[in-house]
Amino acid sequence: MSDAAATTLQRRLANFRAARSAAVAEAPATLFCPARSRGAELAERLAAAVDGEWLVNAAGNVVRVEATTISLPLERKRLATLPGQPPPDVPLLCLDTETTGLGTAAGTVAFLIGLGWWEGERFRQLQLLCPDHADEPALLAALDAAVPPDCWLVTYNGKSFDWPLLVTRYRMSRRDAPPHEGHLDLLPQVRRLFRHRLGDARLQTVEREMLGIHRHDDVGGWEIPERYLAFVRGGPAEPVAEIVTHNAEDVRSLGRLLVHLDTHYADPDRRPLAPAGDLVGLARSFSRERRHTDALGCLEAAEAGWRAPALGSTAWPFGSPMPSSETVSREQIRSERARTLRRLERYEEAGAAWLALTRRPGPDAVRAWIEIAKLREHRLSDPAGAAEAARAAATMLERLRFLDAAQPRLEAAVAARLRRLAKRARAGGSELVAGRTRPPLAAASRAAVAPDPAALGGPSRRV
């Protein structure tokens, strides 16, 4: 660069600095705290729109909204008897967030956090709002103060979305998320108990089908991010007020769902009145916790009350609309009961239960014979009886193949079982097992129930 060009550049820089200094001297002081003044203006407008309280802490601005408390009695000791529920002596904190997206990565922000908890029989609610992105540390500080360290969080899909997102936001702020004792996510429980009669597992579907609640003029989830971002860019605050109403209803539904579980499923006297499909799902939940006696009680109640209540009945407390028929079959209930009896080591009863399922021909009967074979071989020390059951399964499979309803996987499983049992019999040299001898099948009976196992892999034969 030449000396003349350098001199010109220095002169231009000097003129720019002088002009900028003059503009600074004449401008209002508020222009030089843009983040602070912007956050304050947004917080003031937002608090007025949602009828909330504008709070300022060391980290920034936050808007606090406290909804009207409602009566929502919850019997905690009774609820704790259900699988997966928290102990009765810990506080519960229902939590739901509204975010700027559906991901949990760094670009997604939780701008609204709804909380709900019980004080006696009353359900209180609190909502915390972030007026601007710069005020997120203030929101996180307010949440930190609102979460008791000994509480259990109650969410809907919160283990996969809400709480991981908040943990990410805390980490980006270089602080730890609030500690808590446990986390009850109601989404897996809803899927386990009610998926057989729900179109999907969204919270609004559960409200409508299980709780009989129908929302009107509600905000769609897809609208929420754009409404908030439009407000942050200077738009009106009223659309955000509708998001606050939506969030308050979500939090309230978490409490109502817990009360529904407590009233209709934790109460042993009312549990048998529940739909059979619900009781099967509850039995599976008990089995996951190895509470097989409770699971068996649910299954026996399901089988006893398998028929649905008459249409038009006004005493249907399990959701709306009332189903016209059960969504599970008696065979499903009886299969689950047989498995539970096996887990309880009541093997003779389990065998009888499986045997009852073999009376109707079809793939379910084949599976029942396979279960009988397993039970006799591994639990009753009766390989001859196991072979007899496997041959009965093979017979049914051949008949299904003859009817053009072949079951290749079951055929392969039965053929492998027959080969292994035959090898075991050859190795033993007799059918003497555990000090007792099982009489072999008569030739006529054997021919009536069992084809040659090798025939399973070849063309079907007439039976």
Question: Your description of this structure?
Answer:
This protein has helices spanning 3-26, 34-50, 76-79, 136-146, 158-172, 186-194, 203-211, 224-232, 238-266, 276-288, 292-304, 330-343, 347-356, 363-379, 383-402, 408-428, 443-449; strands at residues 53-57, 60-71, 92-99, 110-119, 122-129, 152-155, 182-185, 432-433, 436-437. By secondary structure, it is α+β, with helices and mostly antiparallel strands. The protein contains 17 helices and nine strands. The protein folds into two domains: 39-264, Nucleotidyltransferase, domain 5 (2-Layer Sandwich); 347-463. The longest helix is centred in the middle third of the chain and has 29 residues, at 238-266. The model is unreliable at 23-36, 308-315, 320-325 and 431-463 (pLDDT under 50). The strands form two sheets. A seven-stranded mixed beta sheet has the order 1-2-5-4-3-6-7.
What order do the helices and strands come in, and which of them pair?
Layout: H1 3-26, H2 34-50, E1 53-57, E2 60-71, H3 76-79, E3 92-99, E4 110-119, E5 122-129, H4 136-146, E6 152-155, H5 158-172, E7 182-185, H6 186-194, H7 203-211, H8 224-232, H9 238-266, H10 276-288, H11 292-304, H12 330-343, H13 347-356, H14 363-379, H15 383-402, H16 408-428, E8 432-433, E9 436-437, H17 443-449
Parallel strand pairs: 3-6, 6-7
Antiparallel strand pairs: 1-2, 2-5, 3-4, 4-5, 8-9
Helix pairs in contact: 6-10, 7-9, 10-11, 11-12, 12-13, 13-14, 14-15, 15-16
